[in-house]
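Hi all, posting the design record for the shared folder.

TITLE: backbone redesign
STEP: 1 of 1
STRUCTURE INPUT:
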C-alpha cells in the first residue's frame, strides 16, 4: 500500500473537507503544514497508519520518507512505499515523525545514514516527534538530549542513556519535542499535534469522525494494570531484542557525548 492508495480510501469516505479547511484558511491557502514521516523496515504499521490518517484528514503535505524509495516491509507483512528518499525529502519540515517497531528501531540506531538524516531534519523541524520505540531513534540522533520523553513501556527506561528525562505518560510534550508511548498512543499523539497545527476544534472533529472512544475489553494495556506475570512474560520473549536496544542506546549515548 502506498500513500496514493491510502489517501484514496480517505477520499472515498469524503472526510477531508470536513476538517482543517477553516483553520488552514486562516493561515492562507498555501500554508499546509509539511510533515515528514520516516518509513523504515520492520516498523509497526499502526504506528504509521494512525497518525497518517489524522494528518491526511488535516490536509497536510505528508511525505513518507525512506532511505530509498523502495517499498519497505512492516511488522504486519504489508509493504509501504516511500514517496521520498533521504536525498529528495523536503529540507524544512513542520513535523518530523518517527514510528516504532523494536527490530527496525535497533537497526536504525546502528545506521549512520538514518541518524544523519534525523539530525539534519530534526535541527530545523518545528516539531520533532515519535511514537513507540521511535523515541530511541530520535535519542540516538541526539534530538532528545535535555528533553523529557517517553517510549514503549518495555524500552522507556533506556531513554536516560540517550540524555532524555523519562516520563511515564502516554504523550509527553517538552517544548517542540512530542513523544508518545507504544503503538495505540499514536492516535493520542496525532490529535495533540492536530491541535498545534490547526486548532482544538479541528482535533475534536477528527476524534469524533474516527470514533476514537476506546473501551478495551481488558484493563491490561500497561504493565501497571496488566500485572507482573503478563509483563514479565513479554519481557522474557522480547529479552534478546531489548538487550540489543540497550547496547545500541549505550553506544549512541557515548557517540553524543553522554
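Okay, here is what came back for every position:
SEQUENCE:
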Amino acid at each position: 500500500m502506498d500513500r496514493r492508495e491510502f489517501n484514496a480510501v480517505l477520499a472515498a469516505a469524503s472526510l477531508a473537507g470536513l476538517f482543517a479547511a477553516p483553520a488552514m484558511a486562516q493561515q492562507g491557502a498555501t500554508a499546509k503544514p509539511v510533515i515528514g514521516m520516516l518509513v523504515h523496515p520492520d516498523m509497526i504499521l499502526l504506528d504509521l497508519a494512525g497518525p497518517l490518517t489524522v494528518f491526511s484528514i488535516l490536509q497536510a503535505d505528508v511525505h513518507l520518507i525512506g532511505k530509498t524509495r523502495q517499498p519497505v516491509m512492516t511488522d504486519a507483512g504489508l509493504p509501504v512505499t516511500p514517496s521520498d528518499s533521504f536525498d529528495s525529502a523536503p529540507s524544512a519540515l513542520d513535523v518530523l515523525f518517527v514510528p516504532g517497531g523494536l527490530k527496525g528501531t535497533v537497526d536504525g540506531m546502528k545506521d549512520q545514514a538514518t541518524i544523519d538524516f534525523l539530525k539534519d531534519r530534526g535541527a530545523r523541524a518545528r516539531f520533532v516527534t515519535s511514537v513507540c520505540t521511535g523515541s530511541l531513534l530520535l535519542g540516538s540522533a541526539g534530538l532528545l538530549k535535555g528533553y523529557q520523553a517517553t517510549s514503549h513501556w518495555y524500552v522507556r527506561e533506556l531513554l536516560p542513556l540517550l540524555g532524555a528525562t523519562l516520563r511515564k505518560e502516554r504523550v509527553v510534550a517538552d517544548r517542540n519535542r512530542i513523544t508518545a508511548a507504544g503503538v495505540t498512543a499514536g492516535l493520542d499523539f496525532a490529535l495533540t499535534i492536530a491541535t498545534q497545527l490547526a486548532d482544538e476544534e479541528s482535533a475534536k472533529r477528527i476524534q469524533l469522525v474516527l470514533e476514537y472512544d476506546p473501551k478495551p475489553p481488558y484493563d491490561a494495556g500497561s504493565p501497571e494494570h496488566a500485572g507482573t506475570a503478563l509483563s514479565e512474560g513479554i519481557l522474557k520473549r522480547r529479552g534478546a531484542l531489548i538487550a540489543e536496544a540497550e547496547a545500541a542506546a549505550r553506544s549512541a549515548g557515548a557517540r553524543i557525548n553522554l
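COMMENT: The chain has eleven helices and eleven strands.
Let me know if anyone wants the other runs.
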